Amino acid sequence: MASNILTIGQSALAAAQVGISVTGHNIANASTPGYSRQEVVQSAALAQDFGFGYIGQGTTVSSIRRIHSDLLTQQLNTAQSTSSATGTYAAHMSQIDNMLADPAAGLSPSIQKFFTSIQALSSNPGDAATRQAALSSASSLVGRFQSLGDRLNEIRDAFNSELSASTEQVTSYASKIAQLNDVISKAVGANKDNVPNDLMDQRDQLVTEISKLVKTTVNAQDDGSYNLFVGNGLPLVIGSKSYGLTTVRSTTDSTRIEVAYVSNTVKPLADNMLAGGSIGGLLQFRAGSLDSIQNQLGQIATVLTQTFNAQHSLGYDANGNVGGNFFNVPTPDVFGDAANSGSATLNVSISSTSALTSSDYQLKYDGTNYTITRLSDNSVQTFGSLPQTLDGLTFNGSMSADDSFLVEPTRNAATKLSLAISDINKIAAADAAGGNGNNRNALQLAALQTTGTLNNGSATYENAFGQLVSFVGNKTNELKINAAAEDTLLTQATTAQQSESGVNLDEEATNLLRYQQAYQAAGKLMQVASSLFDLLLTIGH
Q: Does residue 173 share a domain with residue 157?
């Protein structure tokens, strides 16, 4: 019986030791991201029949249980994905909002200064200093367009770098999850009741990290492994096999990068395939705002300079010559698909500035019909031949079946803008030849400031820029409000998940004291058993 008591004491001592170790492990990892608290699961050892009844044989540690809720974790990951997407979009829009809304750096002051100088020219067309002031203000206006365009291009370059880095992270995390899947499934296969808790925490934390980058869906398997899907159902991890994301150059626009799915091949993905996370937020930002903002700025630059050129060319300069172009206006950018036939050509010119929109276009030829898609609203028009005119653009060229082109009429217009003249005597202020004191064409040029020249005559240059600033400001404010709301939901989801799985140091301190007392009691029990055993030996002698 003394040996039985000793065995019971030993089991109690061992269980208390495990309890202290697990509690200490919890305390040590209280601040470890993704760690789920663990607890000891004990059960009574099989009792022994002594004839007069069953006497217990102490305790056994059945397992170390991980306190974890798949539902709460998935809710947290969903909230994380949505919050990250909205926050990323809002942060990038804030950059543009700060740039366009800045009174000193905005476009409106430069437009006003330019037309003020033209009005001054109309009052004194023969004065060299006034002509020089007009040319200088024109140069400043061009510089302001270029500066804004360059800044938007810098934001686009930063976007490209961030998108590439994010896809690399997703691929890296996926590889690590696949490796953990392999280890975990082998451990579960060896003993289904004892699972590697810390490895499972590490895997869940990696899933959370991916959720910050892109929307994730987890399917837990019977062998303990995870099948992980991202975006709209793309398999990223299947058991011990991982796939990945990368970035590639667009086949239609070499300056544009796209996210691609890496399996046996590299397949470019449509933007709507990758919702959620910072990647989804980035793609939303580019498709929903950055492209449009650059195009609208380019539209203003194109219309202002072309309408000014058109009126300027009707006048005569100080030398009596017909006025030429005042500005150099960039032509629309045309990109042929990489799969086009070698003979495919497309020329696009602006035929009507008032009808010009801020949209991009796609032209396809199926061997019979030409299809032009306005990408801003995906409206489609079909023609049997070229040339054709749509939205102030004339399309003309030669194409083979299945050829396609992407047309960006105004995307880079602001950046590529420049002055066409540098000689003050070439400013065509007059409306007749040897008319150095004639100001009639200068008056017509000054009147352009208040003329509806954009969007089918509904907006002036400054109106159009004001609408752009308003769109950016309203969108940024909307995103900031949504981001704050999503942050609140993320905090709530985090709190709910941590209340289930997080380490409470006060609770662990209580557990530590409890196991310490159990350890001391077990030691005392073993001491009593030893004394009884010694007493039995004494009686035996």
A: no
Domain membership flag for residue 87 = no
Residues 312 and 370 in one domain: yes
The answer on 156 and 167 residing in a single domain is: no
Regions of the chain short of the pLDDT cut 50: none
Q: What would you report as the CA-atom Rg of the chain, rounded to the nearest whole angstrom?
A: 37
95-114 burial: b if 16+ Cβ within 10 Å, else e = ebbebbeeeeebbeebbebb
Instruction: Return the closest-CA partner of residue 327 out of 306, 352, 354, 298.
Output: 306
Distance CA 253, CA 257 (A): 8
Structural domain of 231: 72-82+163-283
Contact 41, 62 (CB under 8 A): yes
What predicted TM-score, i.e. pTM, was given to this entire model?
Answer: 0.90
Do 297 and 278 belong together in one domain?
A: no
Distance CA 75, CA 365 (A): 47
The residue assigned the tokens 């140069």 is 139
| Residue 312 and residue 411 share a domain | yes
pLDDT tens track for 37-65:
999 999 998 888 888 888 888 999 999 99
Enumerate residues 6+ apart whose C-beta is below 8 A from 496. Answer: 72, 75, 76
Q: What pLDDT sits at residue 117?
A: 97
- SS3 of 21-45: the string is HHHHHHHHCCCCCCCCCEEEEEEEC
Is 100 inside any structural domain?
no
Please say whether the dihedral angle defined by the alpha carbons of residues 233, 236, 239 and 241, taken in this order, is positive or negative.
positive
